[in-house]
Amino acid sequence: MAKKDDTSTVGMRYLTSPMQRLVVLWIPLCAFLFVLLFPFYWMVTTSIKPDAELLQRDGNPFWVTNPTLAHIKKLLFDTQYPEWVWNTMLVSISATFISLFCSVLAAYAIERLRFRGSRLVGALIFLAYLVPPSILFIPLSTMVFKFGLFDTRLALILTYPTFLIPFCTWLLMGYFKSIPFELEECALIDGATRLQILRRIVLPLAVPGLISAGIFAFTLSWNEFIYALTFISSSEVKTVPIGVVTELVEGDVYHWGSLMAGALLGSLPVAILYSFFVEYYVSGLTGAVKE
Amino acid sequence: MQARPAAVVPGARARQAAPARRALSRWLDDRNVLGLAFLLPGALILLVFLTYPLALGTWLGFTDAKIGRAGHWIGLDNFEFIWNDSLTRLALFNTLFYTIVASVIKFALGLWLAILLNEHLPFKAFFRAIILLPFIVPTALSAIAFWWIYDPQFSIISWALQRMGLIHQYIDFLGNPWMARFSVIAANIWRGIPFVAICLLAGLQTISPSLYEAAALDGANGWQQFRRITLPLLTPIIAVVMTFSVLFTFTDFQLIYVLTRGGPLNATHLMATLSFQRAIPGGNLGEGAAIATAMVPFLLAAILLSYFGLQRRAWQQGGTDR
Question: What domain count does chain A have?
């Protein structure tokens, strides 16, 4: 992709003057960047501002004169925030691994084993991805009650794969498709079993796809809201988004400093993970849409 | 989804193959059996936690189930009730308004941003990376940031506008019905633009620059090039991206739940938030399920739209439909 960029517009560039470029390109782009990034800047400054500075109307609100770590300290030591982070980690990682395991097998079967009805199954998987959690949470909540899973992390670990497996399978199907058939044929002739082929040939070649799918699954689980809100009620098993929204927002006086600190710290893990694997993330996102 | 195991079973039958083809047929049998085995873990989870709840949810819509009490079949009563319920109608209006306005603006701004990013820029990879940030952080948490930005007394927007002399009183972003509608739409757009822009950017990068050069030699101006080259070639991916966008906007829940919980005066209640409110805090599972089921026809319409978008793509590129 990056190579193509260099030639994509360079041919026409002599037609536009630097002034024109400033007006039609740089000013709108900076406006977009400002709007898209401002809430994050605002989160950071609010979370390190002392309360007195937060609630004063004069002075420059964009700047922090006396930065403080009091809000973050309060969040970490006076609330159950660390437990929520631990819960979210546990749930996200378990759901991601379950989903990856199921998706690798399913995607390989659909894309490579080409068993009878594999196309139909592929289409059904895609349809499953289109089923939104907002219409599933009510029946799922009755099931969660019936299975005795209410208020447990297991309820989330078992339900998150419902939106992760279809997505990951769809993504991995695209990656498996790009691996040449000849490699598998050679291995088959040499007497390898299908499982050996999957483990020794296909999986090593699909590592970028696995990373994409894994990051996506982790991020989606980390961000999940409606299931966690419905299936969890005790503070000690809540996930970060639910904990911040339901536990930190109580009473009439909002503690904006610690709320913003909670929002910031809760966003950091996915942001850091994302920053390490941007390319995988983008290729996963665009690949899934283009398939 | 129920067809999945059934579709595989016929292949598992023993075949009477000629001896010369026995090896091949054994191999074929093998792939059917193996296919089934490989699908099993995923299919099991999806059947139990997706297909079954989907059916259960539809069934619940026809019952008077409450939390802690199994329901009895009451036919169309729930649907009749929500049809005549002014709050549900308001929620439907809000949802359609929210979806249409947010999607149109997300598309326009997303396409614009994609075109800007497709230019020859320094630090392009960096720009692309930070632009996706609003999309990857948890929506519930960024919604809290918006809540603070929309605060009636300490809103930074009001502060800035007042300093510029544009307003004299602080704006009550979430307190007035129409203001609240537009405020939640703005937050939704903020979160959705990156997704649209990055996906459309991927589409733009597949368009050959030689087309633009040829058009420019023929004297086409920028707008004509956009209208006659960019848009038609981008249509297939626009169809898919916008279907996803519409789908996720229509079923949106967390943004509203965090920002307004449906208020003020239910002006921002969407179908999803209303169904949650009726079913979980209200305890009326049947009614909530009926509202959720009522969303399905709209979702199907959106999916069909995407299907035809995909079809168009196949013939446009001279390929065959899979």
Answer: 2
Concatenating the DSSP letter of every residue in A68-95 gives --HHHHHHHHHSSHHHHHHHHHHHHHHH
Q: In this complex, do B132 and A245 lie within 8 Å of one another by their Cβ atoms? A: no
pLDDT tens per residue, chain A (291 residues)?
343 444 444 445 555 677 888 888 889 999 999 999 999 999 999 898 888 777 776 777 788 878 888 888 888 888 889 999 999 999 999 999 999 999 999 999 998 888 888 889 888 988 888 889 999 999 999 999 889 999 999 999 999 999 999 999 988 988 888 888 888 888 888 888 778 888 888 889 889 889 999 999 999 999 999 999 999 999 889 999 999 988 887 666 678 888 899 999 999 999 999 888 888 888 887 776 665
In sequence order, what are the residues at sequence separation of 6 or more whose Cβ sits closer than 8 angstroms to the Cβ of residue B63?
Answer: B71, B72, B73, B74, B78, B286
Within a domain: residue A12?
no
Best CA proximity match to A238, nearest among A228, A226, A230: A228
Cα end-to-end distance, chain B, whole Å: 19
Q: Could you give the angle at which helices A256-276 and A70-78 cross, rounded to 10 degrees? A: 90
* Substitution target from B117, B119, B151 for chain A, most A beta carbons within 10 A: B119
Please state, for a pLDDT cut of 90, what percent of chain B lies above it: 43
Question: Chain B within 8 Å of A158 (Cβ-Cβ)?
Answer: yes
Q: Which of B26, B144, B163, B235 to mutate to test the interface with A (most CBs of A within 10 A)?
A: B144
Cβ atoms A189, A254 nearer than 8 A = no
Q: Could you report the predicted ipTM of this complex, rounded to two decimals? A: 0.87
Query: Which residues lie below 8 Å from residue A247, measured CB to CB, with a gap of 6+?
Result: A79, A80, A235, A238
Residue B123 near residue B266 (C-beta atoms within 8 A)? no
* Residues of B whose CB is below 8 A from A271: 133, 136-137
**Are A24 and A110 part of one and the same domain?**
no
Of A211, A219, A223, A217, nearest to A96 (Cα)?
A217
Spatial distance between the Cα atoms of A193 and B44, rounded to a whole number of angstroms:
24
In a domain, A98, yes or no: yes
Write out chain A residues lying below 8 Å of B7, CB-based.
116-117, 120-121
Is residue A162, in this structure, part of any structural domain at all?
A: yes
Kindly list the domain boundaries of chain B, sorted by start residue: 3-61, 77-316
- Which CATH architecture describes the domain B77-316? Orthogonal Bundle (1.10)
SS3 A278: helix
Residues A107 and A34 in one domain: no
- In whole angstroms, give the CA distance from residue B322 to residue B309: 14
For residue A153, give Cα distances in angstroms to A156, B23, B179.
5, 48, 38
- Report CB contact under 8 Å: A223, B138: yes
